[in-house]
Amino acid sequence: MGVSFFETMRGSLRDTEGIEHPVEFQIKAEATRLSSFLWSGEARITGVINAAPWADEAALEGVIRVSPLVERSISYSFRFMNEDQEEFELSGAKSITPFHPLRSFTELQATLRKIDVEEPLGSGELYFHWKDLPQFLASWWPGARIAQYDLEVPPPETLGEEGLFGTVLEETLRAVVEAAFEKGRFVPAGDELTLQAARQLLSEAPSGLIQGYSASLRWIDAAAWKSHGQRFAALDLPTRQALLCDLVEPGTSLTDQIRSWMTRLVLLPIKAVHFDRADYLEALGHPKLAAPQPEAPPSYLSQVTRAEDLDPITEIRADVVIVGTGAGGAPLALELARSGLAVAMIEEGSFKSRQDFFGSPLTRIESLWRNRGITLIVGTPITIPTGRVVGGTTTINSGTCYPTPDPVLRIWRHDLGYPGEFEPDEYHDYSERVAAALEVAPAGETELGGVGAVLQRGARALGLERTALPRNAPGCSAAGVCVFGCPDGAKKSADVAFVPGALKLGAALFTGLPVTRILMRGKRAVAVEARGADRFGASKVLRIFAERIVLSCGSLHTPLLLRDNGIHLPGLGKNLSVHPGMGLIAKMPEDLQPWAAIPQGCGIEGHGIEGIRYEGFYLPPQLFAPSLPMAGAELTHWMDDFHRLAQFGFMVKDESLGSVHRGPGGRPLIRYKISQRSLHRIKRGSALLSELFLRAGALEVLTGMAGRPIVRTIDEARSLRTMPLAAYDLQLLGAHPLGTCAMGSDPKRAVVDFDHRVFGTENLHVVDGSNVPTSLGVNPQMTIMAFALR
After folding, report:
1. Which residues partner with 9 through β-bridges?
2. Which residue among 96, 142, 400, 712 is least packed, with the fewest CB closer than 10 Å?
3. How many helices (H) and strands (E) does the chain have?
4. Whole-prediction pTM value?
5. CA dihedral sign, ordered 673, 677, 683, 688
6. Lowest mean pLDDT among 57-61, 189-193, 250-254, 706-710
7. Confidence grade of residue 156 (pLDDT, cut at 50, 70, 90)
8. 386-441, pLDDT tens digit by residue?
């Protein structure tokens, strides 16, 4: 049995002239035998280093030596070569000290030399970032394999007499469940019902997450030993409750943030299942969505083939094959089918109907969201939710529809050299066609619910305007579950507005089949190959040969598929833009019934802050509670009053650009760092929204900021504008990834030309959000669909 782990270090090196250069490396350390690693402490490392100007994304190879007892150090030594075949060596050590254990384990004093040259090129400090800790903990395991990061792979473990974690950690888990909640008016105490539900949820998690969860349970035990000299389970209940509340408190230091994150990881599944309990939801008055009445399957479903229905190897031919059925692929499929072409669509997810869009949000996340909603960014801590279902992320978004803003079109036209079709007057012909297909209209006043009334009062008090957002959901019943699939069938997501039309015109759809290969012959794409399995695990291979091949997998996956298949362009996977967002929660004196409203129905206009767009959101109790960095009495304080909570937020147009690469287990590794200008906008936006809530009558506002988590006065709200703020002080949600296969005229920067053809190929195209070259500042689905129609 071997041992392996992954690690990322970032920092800067100062050259001989005192100039600092950013450096980042990601490594995998591996020893083929655990026994030899324990004896020698030595492991082989391989990976990639970014160290401009000396090298950019160069492969590295070397050794790591772990000697915490004798030498009290962890030393690194590896070599890499740049494109000019110059060879370099980076070496350094972490000096372990018991007085500063966190810093000494995360800070590497490093030196860079050119081989055969004695004088160093640069030296400085590299750091292990705490947001990479979950990945590191999950990887540091005897017998670990890179596949453990594939969150779609179920764990091999089953629940036995000792559970998933063994007797000792099962006792710790039980003790955490008992200490996590204080009984309230509606909130039940943590008991056997919650414990069994948590165990069941964890038993369905991938093995990599189970390993990380086990490590976090051990860490809670270690914290109990340090503070009280006993395991957590041996402490009395009041002591456990006090310790758990202390550990989960975010604080303002990096150490506090790490402590809070690890505790929240343990509490996340426990909170989710606790507030999914029927006794809590019924006491709160939260409605239970009834399953829709069964409907006869529409005839167009005869054009849909699931992976399990295929022969072991299936080969077909089409005029066009489109990989992905989201905002790019679905409208394109409909337009091409209308033109008489033979169109085949391939989708990794499945085709869901209204009958699938009811039940617990936890079950629906598992079914509809990619990686159970866990898609993390390295750099600035942001989570990006995306869909893994026919319709893509349009099936799980909130339905907000904005055309491409005219100022953005003018930038494309005049600064980026886009053709005349992108002049606003001409381009908006496509926008109008999209709006007609989606039946876009403002949300109705009655569907804005209690939060709409709160925002109306607050906006008027500040001289602002509360608006109803344009949406693609005629006949919406305001059930509050847009992001879990529309149970009314009202939302005109891509699976409703475009895919059925394409199928009725003869297009074919294959589901449950991730595409892994693009078969090339010179510059010509010949076919795509997808692989899936039936419910018994039998392999299924589908190859579709076509005259034109279109990738519509989205900004996070399309560039990886291209790179995996031999496409190497300078801009591929780069130029990533996102919209960082913040959500604030106000406790109101009245019953709002927040579940009876459109989650993203309202906006705020007239605030005069450029680059901020105020839009609503709503998390049901099962997801809301895990997002709160609290436990015990404070958690009960908020969850007992869930029916009185107004949730609202905003997103900012960020100028920063990130990148996406293939990470461990094949998942996207997203690099992105929010700009200081956007941090300023987040402070301004949080201050304004907090004041708006308070002027509407809020008793207190939960800000999501570590430095001032709760505000209760106007002065406290306004102070948010000037408080010191770092990215890790925030609970950010990322949305709308764009730009990683940007459209343009220059293959040194863009990935596709103005016909969406990948540079250097004859018939390989990309049509999805990855083509959009800049941040929009608005929700992008209409822009992506307009690109597809064009």
Report:
1. 25
2. 142
3. 22, 31
4. 0.79
5. negative
6. 250-254
7. very low
8. 899 999 999 999 999 999 999 999 999 999 999 999 999 999 999 999 999 999 99
Rg for the chain, CA atoms, rounded: 26
Locate 480 and state its tokens.
């509050």
**Distance between CA atoms of 623 and 45, rounded to whole angstroms?**
39
Nearest CA among 62, 83, 142, 79 for reference residue 116: 79
Helices (H), 117-163: 133-139
Give the per-residue pLDDT at 131: 67
Catalytic residues, which ones? 736
Spatial distance between the Cα atoms of 379 and 26, rounded to a whole number of angstroms: 13
Residue 760 and residue 775 in contact, taking contact as beta carbons nearer than 8 Å: no
Token couple for 172: 């710790």
Name the burial class of residue 624, with classes exposed (0-12), middle (13-18) and buried (19+) by CB atoms within 10 angstroms of its CB: buried
- The percentage of the chain sitting over the pLDDT mark of 90, rounded to a whole number, equals 61
484 backbone dihedrals φ, ψ, rounded to 5°: -120, 20
pLDDT of residue 34: 66
Residue 374 binned pLDDT confidence (cut-offs 50, 70, 90): low
Beta strands (DSSP E) in 82-192 are 87-95, 107-114, 122-127, 141-142
Section 553-567 average pLDDT:
91
At a CB cut-off of 8 Å and minimum separation 6, what does 258 contact?
A: 102, 130, 133
Extract the tokens encoding 562.
Answer: 């291209």
Taking each helix axis as running N to C, give the angle between helix 207-228 and helix 167-180, from 0 to 180 degrees, rounded to the nearest 10. 70
CB-based contact 435:403 (threshold 8 Å)? yes
Residues in contact with 296: Cβ distance below 8 Å, sequence separation at least 6, in sequence order: none
Contact 680, 687 (CB under 8 A): no
Q: Count of residues for the chain? A: 790
- Rounded Cα distance between 38 and 345, Å, is 51
Question: Which tokens hold the place of 6?
Answer: 């992954």
What would the two tokens of residue 20 be?
């600092």
Strand partners, 701: 586, 711
Asked whether residue 718 carries a pLDDT value surpassing 70, the answer given is yes
φ/ψ (deg, to 5) at 583? -120, 130
- What pLDDT does 653 receive? 92
Using alpha carbons only, what angle is made at residue 628 by residues 623 and 631, rounded to the nearest 5 degrees?
110
Q: Which H/E stretch holds residue 517?
A: strand 515-521
